[in-house]
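If you are new to this repository, start here. Below is one unmodified record pulled from the training split, so you can see the exact layout before writing a loader.
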Amino acid sequence: MQSLVAEKKVGKQSVPLEKTVSLVSAATVAGPKESLGPLSTFFDHRCENTILDEKSFERAERFMLEEACHLALVKAGLSSSDMDYFIAGDILNQIISASFCARELSIPFLGIYGACSTLAEGISLGAMLVQSGFATNILVATSSHNCSAERQYRYPTEYGYQRPEYAQWTVTGAGALVLGQGGTGPQLESVTIGKVVDGGIKDPFNLGVAMAPAAADTIYNHLTDLGREPSYYDLILTGDLGEVGQKLNKDILACKGFNIEPNYADCGTLIYYPHQKTGAGGSGCACSALAFLSLFYKKMMDRELHKILFVATGALHSPTTYLQKETIPAIAHAVSLEI
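And here is the target side for that same chain:
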């Protein structure tokens, strides 16, 4: 057993794949604020309001997730009955958006929680299942909603509280993709499963700084495990560190001997225009999902980008741990894609 594991893994955290697993399709459903941002034209569906004729923001988020899953299946030319597993998660209590969406899809369900790193976690698990021959097609999805997340983690938006400038705006939207064997889409080259890293931050508004050490740790271990320089990739893309966390991530990696500046971007800094007044940028599960599965998926399909290291980050705190004055542990998972 040990020799078999040794053959599959490289270093402590990375798993090379044989590039037989591909992103067959990708779909995005964006909220109203996101639909006015720089990536608007790349989204599949743009919502006009945050409630979507539903009874609550939580139900609206579920609707967006279901719509993204439906679009991903249609674009792949497949149905829910063709899926071996549905891997999904979100940031609401007990991942209720994903669980109730799974109820409608009736696909064997693996519910996961990685906070805003959920998409990369889902892709990693799905790719290893397909690569190992335990599945042929897997649907992976995630979502977040500004209004539902705010009243769970901080205050209801109706309260009108003042946000600090370094805070990030939870993205409203959903993203879904189909993983399959073969195909013409971007292929999964390797994955690096992150460790929980705690930088000692207690401020629930300062999530970019809380997550940056985890992002840097995963990127560092990915590069060292596989013996690569940052220049191996056309783009290293983090999930939602925002302006403050993005800078810290670059500084930490520079201290470790890796300069990612020339080919580095962060989804949180790309999702909104400055005049939209979102503080340090975007966050939430849908932040990386909307950016990666729209603009950057298209750039790979158009052969404008050939190699991407996608590193989604998540803050693993909760209202309970905050009230108990705990620090904010964080996680980051990396997925290497080539076309």
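Two things worth knowing about this chain: The chain has a mean pLDDT of 95. The chain has two domains: 2-181, 187-338.
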